[in-house]
Amino acid sequence: MPDLCISGLNVGYGRATVIESLDLDVKSGELVTVLGANGAGKSTLLNGIMGLRPPRAGSVTLDGVDLAGLRPEQLVARGVVLVPERRELFGSLPVEVNLRLGGYRTGAPAKSLERIYGLFPILAERRRQKAATLSGGEQQMLAVGRALMAEPRLLMLDEPSIGLAPLIVQEILRVIGQLKSEGLTIILVEQNARLALSVADRGYVLEVGRIVLEGSSAELSADPRLSQAYLGGAADYAAARDQVYVD
Amino acid sequence: MLDTLLFLIADGVTNGAVYGLLALSLIVIYTVTRVVNIAQGEYVTLGALSFASALSGTFSVLSAIVAGGLAAFALKDIADRHLTGAMRIRIVLSRALWIFIVLATAWLANLLPGSYWLAVLASLVAIASLGALIYRLTVEPVSGASPIVLLIVSVGVYMVLHGTAVLIWGAEPRSVPPVVEGGVQLGPVFVTYQSLWICGASLVAMIALYLFSERTLTGQALQATAVNRTGAQLCGIPVGVAGQLSFAIGAGFSALSGLLLAPLITANYDMGLPIGLKGFVAAALGGIVEYPTALVGVLLVGLTESFSAYQVSAYRDVVVYLMVIPILLWRNAVRPPETHGN
Protein backbone atom coordinates (compact mmCIF):
# COMPACT_ATOMS: atom_id res chain seq x y z
CA MET A 1 0.00 0.00 0.00
CA PRO A 2 1.68 3.19 -1.12
CA ASP A 3 1.71 6.03 1.36
CA LEU A 4 1.21 8.78 -1.19
CA CYS A 5 -0.36 8.05 -4.56
CA ILE A 6 -0.69 10.63 -7.32
CA SER A 7 -2.38 9.81 -10.59
CA GLY A 8 -3.27 11.86 -13.66
CA LEU A 9 -2.41 15.11 -11.90
CA ASN A 10 -2.90 18.37 -13.83
CA VAL A 11 -1.76 21.68 -12.37
CA GLY A 12 -1.53 25.01 -14.16
CA TYR A 13 -1.55 28.77 -13.98
CA GLY A 14 -4.12 30.70 -16.00
CA ARG A 15 -4.27 29.14 -19.46
CA ALA A 16 -0.93 27.37 -19.13
CA THR A 17 -0.78 23.78 -17.99
CA VAL A 18 2.46 23.14 -16.13
CA ILE A 19 1.97 19.60 -14.82
CA GLU A 20 0.18 17.20 -17.15
CA SER A 21 -1.28 13.78 -16.29
CA LEU A 22 1.48 13.01 -13.85
CA ASP A 23 1.67 9.73 -11.92
CA LEU A 24 3.92 9.36 -8.91
CA ASP A 25 3.89 7.29 -5.76
CA VAL A 26 5.85 7.28 -2.55
CA LYS A 27 5.82 4.38 -0.14
CA SER A 28 5.78 4.81 3.58
CA GLY A 29 9.27 5.54 4.91
CA GLU A 30 10.72 6.16 1.46
CA LEU A 31 12.83 9.12 0.41
CA VAL A 32 11.90 9.93 -3.17
CA THR A 33 13.53 12.67 -5.18
CA VAL A 34 12.02 14.61 -8.06
CA LEU A 35 14.71 15.97 -10.35
CA GLY A 36 14.43 18.49 -13.12
CA ALA A 37 15.79 21.70 -14.57
CA ASN A 38 14.49 25.16 -13.86
CA GLY A 39 10.92 25.49 -15.07
CA ALA A 40 10.32 21.74 -15.30
CA GLY A 41 7.37 22.14 -12.94
CA LYS A 42 8.90 20.77 -9.73
CA SER A 43 7.62 23.53 -7.45
CA THR A 44 4.26 23.55 -9.21
CA LEU A 45 3.96 19.83 -8.49
CA LEU A 46 4.55 20.38 -4.77
CA ASN A 47 2.23 23.41 -4.68
CA GLY A 48 -0.40 21.25 -6.36
CA ILE A 49 -0.08 18.51 -3.76
CA MET A 50 -0.11 21.12 -0.98
CA GLY A 51 -3.28 22.83 -2.21
CA LEU A 52 -1.53 26.17 -2.76
CA ARG A 53 -2.30 25.74 -6.47
CA PRO A 54 -5.37 23.51 -6.54
CA PRO A 55 -5.03 20.74 -9.18
CA ARG A 56 -7.37 20.84 -12.20
CA ALA A 57 -7.58 17.10 -12.58
CA GLY A 58 -6.23 13.89 -11.15
CA SER A 59 -6.16 12.50 -7.68
CA VAL A 60 -3.83 12.68 -4.71
CA THR A 61 -4.39 10.17 -1.93
CA LEU A 62 -2.54 9.60 1.31
CA ASP A 63 -3.06 6.12 2.77
CA GLY A 64 -6.14 5.84 0.56
CA VAL A 65 -7.66 9.09 1.83
CA ASP A 66 -8.45 11.59 -0.94
CA LEU A 67 -6.64 14.90 -0.44
CA ALA A 68 -8.20 16.73 -3.39
CA GLY A 69 -9.76 20.08 -2.62
CA LEU A 70 -8.20 20.40 0.84
CA ARG A 71 -6.76 23.72 1.88
CA PRO A 72 -3.10 23.85 2.95
CA GLU A 73 -3.95 24.06 6.64
CA GLN A 74 -6.15 20.97 6.32
CA LEU A 75 -3.28 19.12 4.66
CA VAL A 76 -0.95 20.12 7.48
CA ALA A 77 -3.52 18.69 9.90
CA ARG A 78 -3.27 15.40 7.95
CA GLY A 79 0.50 15.37 8.23
CA VAL A 80 1.45 16.71 4.80
CA VAL A 81 4.01 19.50 5.27
CA LEU A 82 5.94 21.53 2.70
CA VAL A 83 9.22 23.41 3.06
CA PRO A 84 8.75 25.85 0.18
CA GLU A 85 11.54 27.02 -2.09
CA ARG A 86 11.07 30.62 -0.95
CA ARG A 87 10.99 29.40 2.67
CA GLU A 88 8.10 31.78 3.51
CA LEU A 89 9.40 32.55 6.98
CA PHE A 90 7.97 35.24 9.24
CA GLY A 91 10.87 37.65 8.87
CA SER A 92 9.86 40.19 11.49
CA LEU A 93 9.19 37.53 14.16
CA PRO A 94 11.87 35.86 16.31
CA VAL A 95 13.29 32.45 15.38
CA GLU A 96 11.58 30.75 18.31
CA VAL A 97 8.19 32.22 17.40
CA ASN A 98 8.65 30.97 13.83
CA LEU A 99 9.27 27.49 15.20
CA ARG A 100 6.36 27.65 17.63
CA LEU A 101 4.05 28.70 14.80
CA GLY A 102 5.17 25.64 12.86
CA GLY A 103 3.65 23.63 15.69
CA TYR A 104 0.48 25.73 15.73
CA ARG A 105 -1.79 22.71 15.33
CA THR A 106 -0.15 20.69 18.10
CA GLY A 107 0.22 23.61 20.51
CA ALA A 108 4.01 23.75 19.98
CA PRO A 109 5.05 21.60 22.96
CA ALA A 110 8.46 22.35 24.49
CA LYS A 111 9.81 18.88 23.65
CA SER A 112 9.24 19.44 19.92
CA LEU A 113 11.14 22.70 20.24
CA GLU A 114 14.00 20.96 22.04
CA ARG A 115 14.12 18.33 19.29
CA ILE A 116 14.53 21.02 16.60
CA TYR A 117 17.24 22.75 18.64
CA GLY A 118 18.93 19.36 18.91
CA LEU A 119 18.86 18.93 15.13
CA PHE A 120 19.98 22.52 14.43
CA PRO A 121 21.94 23.84 17.44
CA ILE A 122 22.57 27.16 15.66
CA LEU A 123 18.84 27.94 15.87
CA ALA A 124 18.96 27.63 19.65
CA GLU A 125 21.70 30.27 19.73
CA ARG A 126 19.64 32.53 17.51
CA ARG A 127 16.28 31.89 19.16
CA ARG A 128 15.59 35.54 20.04
CA GLN A 129 16.80 36.96 16.73
CA LYS A 130 14.35 37.99 14.01
CA ALA A 131 14.18 35.42 11.24
CA ALA A 132 15.02 38.05 8.60
CA THR A 133 18.43 38.64 10.22
CA LEU A 134 19.56 35.02 9.74
CA SER A 135 21.94 33.95 7.00
CA GLY A 136 20.52 32.02 4.04
CA GLY A 137 21.63 28.70 5.47
CA GLU A 138 20.21 29.43 8.88
CA GLN A 139 16.94 30.48 7.26
CA GLN A 140 16.79 27.16 5.43
CA MET A 141 17.40 25.31 8.69
CA LEU A 142 14.64 27.38 10.28
CA ALA A 143 12.29 26.53 7.41
CA VAL A 144 13.01 22.81 7.84
CA GLY A 145 12.74 23.10 11.62
CA ARG A 146 9.45 24.94 11.38
CA ALA A 147 8.05 22.24 9.10
CA LEU A 148 9.16 19.50 11.51
CA MET A 149 7.35 21.26 14.36
CA ALA A 150 4.11 20.26 12.60
CA GLU A 151 5.06 16.60 13.14
CA PRO A 152 4.70 15.60 9.48
CA ARG A 153 4.03 12.13 8.13
CA LEU A 154 5.04 13.28 4.67
CA LEU A 155 7.67 15.99 4.41
CA MET A 156 8.16 17.74 1.07
CA LEU A 157 11.33 19.78 0.56
CA ASP A 158 11.54 22.18 -2.37
CA GLU A 159 15.19 22.68 -3.39
CA PRO A 160 16.63 22.96 0.11
CA SER A 161 20.17 23.28 -1.31
CA ILE A 162 19.48 26.26 -3.54
CA GLY A 163 21.94 29.10 -3.14
CA LEU A 164 23.63 27.64 -0.09
CA ALA A 165 27.28 27.03 0.70
CA PRO A 166 28.45 23.38 0.48
CA LEU A 167 29.00 23.11 4.22
CA ILE A 168 25.43 24.20 4.97
CA VAL A 169 24.10 21.82 2.32
CA GLN A 170 25.95 18.99 4.09
CA GLU A 171 24.35 20.00 7.36
CA ILE A 172 20.86 19.96 5.87
CA LEU A 173 21.56 16.69 4.09
CA ARG A 174 22.68 15.16 7.37
CA VAL A 175 19.36 16.10 8.95
CA ILE A 176 17.39 14.77 5.99
CA GLY A 177 19.28 11.50 6.34
CA GLN A 178 18.53 11.38 10.04
CA LEU A 179 14.82 12.02 9.45
CA LYS A 180 14.74 9.23 6.89
CA SER A 181 16.37 6.84 9.33
CA GLU A 182 13.65 7.75 11.83
CA GLY A 183 11.11 6.51 9.28
CA LEU A 184 9.76 9.80 7.92
CA THR A 185 8.41 9.72 4.36
CA ILE A 186 10.12 12.43 2.30
CA ILE A 187 9.82 13.96 -1.17
CA LEU A 188 12.96 15.89 -2.04
CA VAL A 189 12.74 18.15 -5.07
CA GLU A 190 16.15 19.13 -6.44
CA GLN A 191 17.97 20.53 -9.43
CA ASN A 192 21.12 19.12 -7.98
CA ALA A 193 20.73 15.51 -9.13
CA ARG A 194 23.93 14.06 -7.71
CA LEU A 195 23.20 15.52 -4.32
CA ALA A 196 19.62 14.27 -4.25
CA LEU A 197 20.46 10.79 -5.52
CA SER A 198 23.09 10.43 -2.82
CA VAL A 199 20.35 10.33 -0.17
CA ALA A 200 17.25 9.17 -2.05
CA ASP A 201 15.89 5.63 -2.45
CA ARG A 202 14.25 6.36 -5.77
CA GLY A 203 13.87 9.24 -8.15
CA TYR A 204 11.74 10.71 -10.89
CA VAL A 205 12.98 13.05 -13.59
CA LEU A 206 10.59 15.79 -14.60
CA GLU A 207 10.80 17.60 -17.95
CA VAL A 208 8.28 20.27 -18.95
CA GLY A 209 5.63 18.89 -16.65
CA ARG A 210 6.00 15.20 -17.49
CA ILE A 211 7.89 12.33 -15.91
CA VAL A 212 10.50 11.23 -18.45
CA LEU A 213 12.53 8.85 -16.33
CA GLU A 214 12.15 6.97 -13.08
CA GLY A 215 14.03 4.39 -11.13
CA SER A 216 16.10 3.63 -8.09
CA SER A 217 18.87 6.03 -7.19
CA ALA A 218 21.47 3.58 -8.43
CA GLU A 219 19.72 3.11 -11.77
CA LEU A 220 19.27 6.83 -12.27
CA SER A 221 22.86 7.61 -11.33
CA ALA A 222 24.02 5.13 -13.94
CA ASP A 223 21.52 6.21 -16.61
CA PRO A 224 23.32 7.94 -19.48
CA ARG A 225 20.30 10.12 -20.25
CA LEU A 226 20.36 11.59 -16.77
CA SER A 227 24.12 12.03 -16.67
CA GLN A 228 23.98 13.79 -20.01
CA ALA A 229 21.25 16.12 -18.88
CA TYR A 230 22.28 16.85 -15.33
CA LEU A 231 25.56 15.32 -14.35
CA GLY A 232 27.95 15.93 -17.18
CA GLY A 233 28.32 17.25 -20.71
CA ALA A 234 26.97 20.76 -20.91
CA ALA A 235 26.57 20.86 -17.16
CA ASP A 236 30.27 20.39 -16.46
CA TYR A 237 30.34 23.29 -14.11
CA ALA A 238 27.37 22.03 -12.15
CA ALA A 239 28.91 18.57 -11.97
CA ALA A 240 32.15 19.97 -10.64
CA ARG A 241 30.26 21.92 -8.05
CA ASP A 242 28.20 18.87 -7.11
CA GLN A 243 31.39 16.91 -6.63
CA VAL A 244 32.31 19.29 -3.88
CA TYR A 245 28.90 18.82 -2.26
CA VAL A 246 28.94 15.07 -2.24
CA ASP A 247 32.53 14.17 -1.52
CA MET B 1 -5.88 81.36 27.85
CA LEU B 2 -4.02 78.58 29.58
CA ASP B 3 -7.33 77.15 30.80
CA THR B 4 -8.66 77.04 27.26
CA LEU B 5 -5.47 75.42 26.06
CA LEU B 6 -5.60 72.73 28.73
CA PHE B 7 -9.28 72.15 28.07
CA LEU B 8 -8.64 71.70 24.36
CA ILE B 9 -5.79 69.31 25.09
CA ALA B 10 -7.97 67.23 27.44
CA ASP B 11 -10.72 67.19 24.82
CA GLY B 12 -8.25 66.26 22.09
CA VAL B 13 -6.80 63.40 24.10
CA THR B 14 -10.30 62.00 24.74
CA ASN B 15 -11.05 62.17 21.02
CA GLY B 16 -7.68 60.60 20.35
CA ALA B 17 -8.47 57.71 22.68
CA VAL B 18 -11.66 57.00 20.71
CA TYR B 19 -9.85 57.19 17.36
CA GLY B 20 -7.10 55.05 18.86
CA LEU B 21 -9.49 52.13 19.23
CA LEU B 22 -10.63 52.70 15.64
CA ALA B 23 -7.08 52.91 14.32
CA LEU B 24 -6.18 49.65 16.09
CA SER B 25 -9.26 48.00 14.61
CA LEU B 26 -8.34 49.16 11.12
CA ILE B 27 -4.74 47.97 11.47
CA VAL B 28 -5.64 44.53 12.86
CA ILE B 29 -8.09 44.00 10.02
CA TYR B 30 -5.88 45.41 7.25
CA THR B 31 -2.70 43.57 8.20
CA VAL B 32 -4.42 40.20 8.49
CA THR B 33 -6.92 40.43 5.62
CA ARG B 34 -5.78 43.36 3.38
CA VAL B 35 -9.20 44.97 3.78
CA VAL B 36 -9.15 48.76 4.14
CA ASN B 37 -12.35 48.73 6.11
CA ILE B 38 -14.55 51.69 5.17
CA ALA B 39 -17.34 50.10 7.23
CA GLN B 40 -15.32 50.31 10.47
CA GLY B 41 -17.33 53.25 11.82
CA GLU B 42 -20.56 51.27 11.55
CA TYR B 43 -19.41 48.98 14.33
CA VAL B 44 -19.15 52.12 16.47
CA THR B 45 -22.76 52.96 15.66
CA LEU B 46 -24.02 49.44 16.17
CA GLY B 47 -22.05 49.11 19.41
CA ALA B 48 -23.59 52.27 20.83
CA LEU B 49 -27.13 51.48 19.68
CA SER B 50 -27.17 47.85 20.73
CA PHE B 51 -25.75 48.95 24.07
CA ALA B 52 -28.59 51.45 24.43
CA SER B 53 -31.08 48.66 23.66
CA ALA B 54 -29.51 46.21 26.06
CA LEU B 55 -29.42 48.78 28.82
CA SER B 56 -33.09 49.62 28.41
CA GLY B 57 -33.96 45.94 28.58
CA THR B 58 -35.04 45.54 24.96
CA PHE B 59 -33.89 42.29 23.38
CA SER B 60 -31.56 43.36 20.59
CA VAL B 61 -32.76 42.19 17.18
CA LEU B 62 -29.13 42.35 16.13
CA SER B 63 -28.20 39.57 18.58
CA ALA B 64 -30.88 37.38 17.01
CA ILE B 65 -29.61 38.15 13.49
CA VAL B 66 -26.03 37.40 14.54
CA ALA B 67 -27.05 34.12 16.17
CA GLY B 68 -28.94 33.14 13.02
CA GLY B 69 -25.95 33.96 10.82
CA LEU B 70 -23.62 31.97 13.05
CA ALA B 71 -26.01 29.01 12.89
CA ALA B 72 -26.13 29.20 9.09
CA PHE B 73 -22.33 29.14 8.78
CA ALA B 74 -22.14 26.37 11.37
CA LEU B 75 -24.35 24.23 9.10
CA LYS B 76 -22.12 25.06 6.13
CA ASP B 77 -19.01 24.06 8.10
CA ILE B 78 -20.52 20.80 9.29
CA ALA B 79 -21.42 19.89 5.71
CA ASP B 80 -17.71 19.82 4.69
CA ARG B 81 -17.20 16.31 3.33
CA HIS B 82 -13.55 16.17 4.38
CA LEU B 83 -14.31 16.26 8.09
CA THR B 84 -13.76 13.30 10.34
CA GLY B 85 -16.35 12.50 13.00
CA ALA B 86 -14.32 14.00 15.84
CA MET B 87 -13.73 17.25 13.90
CA ARG B 88 -17.46 17.51 13.18
CA ILE B 89 -18.34 17.10 16.85
CA ARG B 90 -15.80 19.76 17.79
CA ILE B 91 -17.30 22.20 15.28
CA VAL B 92 -20.84 21.51 16.48
CA LEU B 93 -19.87 22.06 20.12
CA SER B 94 -17.80 25.21 19.53
CA ARG B 95 -20.44 26.84 17.32
CA ALA B 96 -23.23 25.90 19.73
CA LEU B 97 -21.27 27.47 22.57
CA TRP B 98 -20.68 30.63 20.52
CA ILE B 99 -24.36 30.99 19.61
CA PHE B 100 -25.31 30.27 23.21
CA ILE B 101 -23.04 33.06 24.49
CA VAL B 102 -24.50 35.57 22.02
CA LEU B 103 -28.09 34.70 22.95
CA ALA B 104 -27.49 34.23 26.68
CA THR B 105 -25.79 37.62 27.14
CA ALA B 106 -28.55 39.34 25.14
CA TRP B 107 -31.23 37.50 27.11
CA LEU B 108 -29.64 38.23 30.50
CA ALA B 109 -29.33 41.92 29.63
CA ASN B 110 -32.99 41.75 28.72
CA LEU B 111 -33.87 40.14 32.06
CA LEU B 112 -31.88 42.63 34.11
CA PRO B 113 -32.45 46.02 32.49
CA GLY B 114 -30.18 48.78 33.70
CA SER B 115 -27.31 46.47 34.53
CA TYR B 116 -24.48 48.46 32.96
CA TRP B 117 -21.72 45.87 32.58
CA LEU B 118 -24.08 43.15 31.42
CA ALA B 119 -25.25 45.49 28.66
CA VAL B 120 -21.62 46.24 27.75
CA LEU B 121 -20.87 42.52 27.56
CA ALA B 122 -23.98 41.73 25.52
CA SER B 123 -23.31 44.41 22.93
CA LEU B 124 -19.57 43.67 22.67
CA VAL B 125 -20.26 39.95 22.16
CA ALA B 126 -22.92 40.70 19.56
CA ILE B 127 -20.84 43.19 17.57
CA ALA B 128 -17.60 41.17 17.72
CA SER B 129 -19.54 38.15 16.44
CA LEU B 130 -21.10 40.34 13.76
CA GLY B 131 -17.57 41.28 12.67
CA ALA B 132 -16.61 37.62 12.29
CA LEU B 133 -19.84 37.01 10.40
CA ILE B 134 -19.22 39.93 8.02
CA TYR B 135 -15.78 38.48 7.28
CA ARG B 136 -17.20 35.10 6.37
CA LEU B 137 -20.02 36.57 4.36
CA THR B 138 -18.16 39.23 2.39
CA VAL B 139 -14.38 38.75 2.57
CA GLU B 140 -13.78 35.01 2.65
CA PRO B 141 -15.44 34.36 -0.74
CA VAL B 142 -13.05 36.90 -2.36
CA SER B 143 -10.09 36.55 0.00
CA GLY B 144 -7.57 36.31 -2.84
CA ALA B 145 -8.84 39.50 -4.48
CA SER B 146 -6.82 42.69 -4.85
CA PRO B 147 -7.01 45.33 -2.08
CA ILE B 148 -9.14 47.61 -4.29
CA VAL B 149 -11.81 44.91 -4.67
CA LEU B 150 -11.76 44.30 -0.91
CA LEU B 151 -12.12 48.05 -0.34
CA ILE B 152 -15.16 48.22 -2.64
CA VAL B 153 -16.67 45.25 -0.81
CA SER B 154 -16.26 47.14 2.45
CA VAL B 155 -18.11 50.14 0.95
CA GLY B 156 -20.99 47.76 0.23
CA VAL B 157 -20.84 46.45 3.78
CA TYR B 158 -20.92 50.04 5.04
CA MET B 159 -24.16 50.71 3.13
CA VAL B 160 -25.85 47.55 4.40
CA LEU B 161 -24.83 48.07 8.03
CA HIS B 162 -25.79 51.74 7.89
CA GLY B 163 -29.23 50.81 6.57
CA THR B 164 -29.57 48.03 9.11
CA ALA B 165 -28.94 50.48 11.94
CA VAL B 166 -31.73 52.77 10.68
CA LEU B 167 -34.04 49.79 10.13
CA ILE B 168 -33.61 48.43 13.66
CA TRP B 169 -33.24 51.59 15.71
CA GLY B 170 -34.78 54.30 13.53
CA ALA B 171 -33.38 57.78 13.04
CA GLU B 172 -34.09 58.98 16.59
CA PRO B 173 -30.97 59.56 18.66
CA ARG B 174 -30.82 57.75 21.99
CA SER B 175 -29.24 59.11 25.10
CA VAL B 176 -26.89 56.72 26.83
CA PRO B 177 -25.82 57.12 30.45
CA PRO B 178 -22.12 57.36 31.31
CA VAL B 179 -20.35 54.76 33.44
CA VAL B 180 -20.22 57.27 36.28
CA GLU B 181 -21.93 60.68 36.31
CA GLY B 182 -19.96 63.84 36.92
CA GLY B 183 -16.31 64.58 36.66
CA VAL B 184 -13.25 65.83 38.41
CA GLN B 185 -11.47 69.16 38.58
CA LEU B 186 -7.91 68.58 37.39
CA GLY B 187 -6.22 71.91 38.12
CA PRO B 188 -8.00 74.48 35.99
CA VAL B 189 -9.75 71.92 33.78
CA PHE B 190 -12.96 70.02 34.51
CA VAL B 191 -12.72 66.49 33.07
CA THR B 192 -15.75 64.20 33.01
CA TYR B 193 -15.31 60.75 34.47
CA GLN B 194 -16.51 59.41 31.12
CA SER B 195 -13.48 60.97 29.38
CA LEU B 196 -11.23 59.25 31.89
CA TRP B 197 -13.08 55.97 31.31
CA ILE B 198 -12.60 56.35 27.56
CA CYS B 199 -8.86 56.98 27.93
CA GLY B 200 -8.51 54.14 30.45
CA ALA B 201 -10.49 51.63 28.41
CA SER B 202 -8.56 52.57 25.28
CA LEU B 203 -5.26 52.05 27.09
CA VAL B 204 -6.35 48.71 28.58
CA ALA B 205 -7.59 47.50 25.19
CA MET B 206 -4.28 48.41 23.57
CA ILE B 207 -2.24 46.66 26.25
CA ALA B 208 -4.52 43.61 26.06
CA LEU B 209 -4.10 43.44 22.27
CA TYR B 210 -0.34 43.79 22.64
CA LEU B 211 -0.10 40.99 25.23
CA PHE B 212 -2.41 38.79 23.15
CA SER B 213 -0.27 39.29 20.01
CA GLU B 214 3.05 38.78 21.73
CA ARG B 215 2.37 36.16 24.39
CA THR B 216 -0.19 33.73 22.98
CA LEU B 217 0.21 31.28 20.12
CA THR B 218 -3.10 32.44 18.63
CA GLY B 219 -1.96 36.05 18.76
CA GLN B 220 1.33 35.11 17.13
CA ALA B 221 -0.59 33.22 14.46
CA LEU B 222 -2.50 36.42 13.74
CA GLN B 223 0.80 38.29 13.36
CA ALA B 224 2.16 35.48 11.19
CA THR B 225 -0.84 35.72 8.87
CA ALA B 226 -0.21 39.45 8.60
CA VAL B 227 3.52 38.99 7.86
CA ASN B 228 3.30 36.09 5.41
CA ARG B 229 -0.01 34.56 4.45
CA THR B 230 1.46 31.64 2.50
CA GLY B 231 3.88 30.88 5.32
CA ALA B 232 0.97 30.88 7.78
CA GLN B 233 -1.00 28.45 5.63
CA LEU B 234 2.02 26.15 5.41
CA CYS B 235 2.23 26.15 9.21
CA GLY B 236 -1.32 24.85 9.37
CA ILE B 237 -2.71 28.16 10.59
CA PRO B 238 -6.28 28.45 9.32
CA VAL B 239 -6.04 31.88 7.68
CA GLY B 240 -9.82 32.08 7.37
CA VAL B 241 -10.14 31.77 11.13
CA ALA B 242 -7.38 34.37 11.55
CA GLY B 243 -9.41 36.69 9.30
CA GLN B 244 -12.55 36.15 11.35
CA LEU B 245 -10.63 36.77 14.54
CA SER B 246 -9.17 40.03 13.21
CA PHE B 247 -12.64 41.21 12.19
CA ALA B 248 -14.05 40.20 15.58
CA ILE B 249 -11.32 42.12 17.41
CA GLY B 250 -11.75 45.14 15.14
CA ALA B 251 -15.54 45.16 15.48
CA GLY B 252 -15.34 44.63 19.25
CA PHE B 253 -12.83 47.48 19.76
CA SER B 254 -14.91 49.82 17.64
CA ALA B 255 -18.11 48.87 19.48
CA LEU B 256 -16.34 49.56 22.77
CA SER B 257 -15.36 53.03 21.60
CA GLY B 258 -18.94 53.61 20.44
CA LEU B 259 -20.64 52.70 23.68
CA LEU B 260 -18.15 54.70 25.73
CA LEU B 261 -18.41 57.73 23.46
CA ALA B 262 -22.21 57.64 23.21
CA PRO B 263 -22.88 59.44 26.54
CA LEU B 264 -20.88 62.44 25.27
CA ILE B 265 -22.61 62.78 21.87
CA THR B 266 -25.81 60.60 22.07
CA ALA B 267 -26.10 57.36 20.12
CA ASN B 268 -27.55 57.66 16.64
CA TYR B 269 -27.40 55.82 13.33
CA ASP B 270 -25.10 58.43 11.80
CA MET B 271 -22.41 58.68 14.48
CA GLY B 272 -20.04 56.03 13.10
CA LEU B 273 -18.82 57.17 9.71
CA PRO B 274 -16.95 60.35 10.79
CA ILE B 275 -15.35 58.46 13.70
CA GLY B 276 -14.29 55.64 11.38
CA LEU B 277 -12.82 58.09 8.88
CA LYS B 278 -10.88 59.94 11.56
CA GLY B 279 -9.54 56.65 12.84
CA PHE B 280 -8.49 55.98 9.27
CA VAL B 281 -6.64 59.31 8.98
CA ALA B 282 -4.72 58.40 12.14
CA ALA B 283 -3.99 54.86 10.97
CA ALA B 284 -2.85 56.21 7.58
CA LEU B 285 0.04 57.95 9.33
CA GLY B 286 1.39 54.46 10.07
CA GLY B 287 0.46 53.10 6.64
CA ILE B 288 -2.38 51.14 8.34
CA VAL B 289 0.33 48.70 9.46
CA GLU B 290 2.38 50.37 12.22
CA TYR B 291 0.73 50.49 15.63
CA PRO B 292 3.09 52.98 17.35
CA THR B 293 2.94 55.50 14.49
CA ALA B 294 -0.84 55.20 14.44
CA LEU B 295 -0.93 56.12 18.13
CA VAL B 296 0.98 59.31 17.34
CA GLY B 297 -1.59 59.77 14.57
CA VAL B 298 -4.60 59.48 16.86
CA LEU B 299 -3.25 62.13 19.23
CA LEU B 300 -2.51 64.36 16.26
CA VAL B 301 -6.01 63.89 14.85
CA GLY B 302 -7.68 64.28 18.27
CA LEU B 303 -5.82 67.49 19.06
CA THR B 304 -6.25 68.93 15.57
CA GLU B 305 -9.96 68.29 15.86
CA SER B 306 -10.38 69.94 19.25
CA PHE B 307 -8.27 72.95 18.31
CA SER B 308 -9.97 73.43 14.95
CA ALA B 309 -13.36 73.03 16.63
CA TYR B 310 -12.38 75.96 18.82
CA GLN B 311 -10.90 78.14 16.08
CA VAL B 312 -13.01 77.34 13.00
CA SER B 313 -15.80 75.16 14.34
CA ALA B 314 -17.71 74.90 11.06
CA TYR B 315 -14.69 73.36 9.36
CA ARG B 316 -13.42 71.01 12.08
CA ASP B 317 -14.10 67.82 10.11
CA VAL B 318 -12.74 69.39 6.94
CA VAL B 319 -9.48 70.24 8.69
CA VAL B 320 -9.13 66.70 10.03
CA TYR B 321 -9.90 65.03 6.69
CA LEU B 322 -7.50 67.40 4.92
CA MET B 323 -4.71 66.00 7.09
CA VAL B 324 -4.85 62.82 5.05
CA ILE B 325 -3.23 64.58 2.08
CA PRO B 326 0.05 65.61 3.77
CA ILE B 327 0.04 62.24 5.57
CA LEU B 328 -0.15 60.29 2.32
CA LEU B 329 2.49 62.49 0.68
CA TRP B 330 4.75 61.96 3.69
CA ARG B 331 4.15 58.17 3.71
CA ASN B 332 4.97 58.02 0.05
CA ALA B 333 8.17 59.97 0.59
CA VAL B 334 9.47 57.89 3.52
CA ARG B 335 8.35 54.52 2.29
CA PRO B 336 6.92 53.69 -1.15
CA PRO B 337 3.70 51.63 -0.96
CA GLU B 338 5.12 48.52 -2.65
CA THR B 339 7.42 47.78 0.27
CA HIS B 340 4.50 47.38 2.66
CA GLY B 341 3.34 43.99 3.81
CA ASN B 342 5.69 41.18 3.06
What does this structure look like?
The complex is a heterodimer of chains A (247) and B (342). Chain A is of the alpha/beta class and 247 residues long. Helices cover 40% and strands 25% of the residues of chain A. Chain A has eleven helices and ten strands. A six-stranded mixed β-sheet of chain A has the order 6-7-8-3-9-10, sandwiched between helices. In chain A, helix 7 links the parallel strand 7 and strand 8. In chain A, helix 3 runs parallel beside helix 6 and helix 4 runs antiparallel to helix 6. Chain A is globular, with a radius of gyration of 17 Å. The termini of chain A are far apart. The C terminus of chain A is likely disordered. Chain B contains 14 helices and two strands; from the N terminus they run ααααααββαααααααα. Chain B is mostly helical and 342 residues long. Chain B is globular and about 70 Å long. A two-stranded antiparallel ribbon of chain B has the order 1-2. Chains A and B meet through helix 2 and helix 3 of A and helix 8 and helix 9 of B.
In short, what is this structure?
Chain A has 247 residues and is an alpha/beta fold.
What structural class do helix, strand and pairing data of chain B support?
A: mainly alpha
Largest sheet of chain B: 2 strands, antiparallel
Largest sheet descriptor of chain A: 6 strands, mixed
What structural category arises from helix and sheet content of chain A? alpha/beta
The separation of the N and C termini of chain B measures: 49 Å
Fold-level CATH name of chain B: ABC transporter involved in vitamin B12 uptake, BtuC
Shape of chain A: globular
- The end-to-end distance of chain A, rounded to whole angstroms, is 36 Å
Order of helices and strands of chain A: EEEHEEHEHHHHEHEHEEHHH
Q: Percent range for helical residues of chain A?
A: 40-55%
Instruction: Kindly report the spatial arrangement of strands forming the biggest sheet of chain A.
Output: 6-7-8-3-9-10
Strand content of chain A: 25-35%
Q: So how many helices of chain A?
A: 11
Beta content of chain B comes to under 5%
Please provide the count of β strands of chain B: 2
Indicate the CATH architecture of chain B: Orthogonal Bundle
The first-level CATH class of chain B is given as Mainly Alpha
DSSP helix count of chain B?
A: 14
Question: Biggest interface pair, residues each?
Answer: A-B, 30 and 18 residues
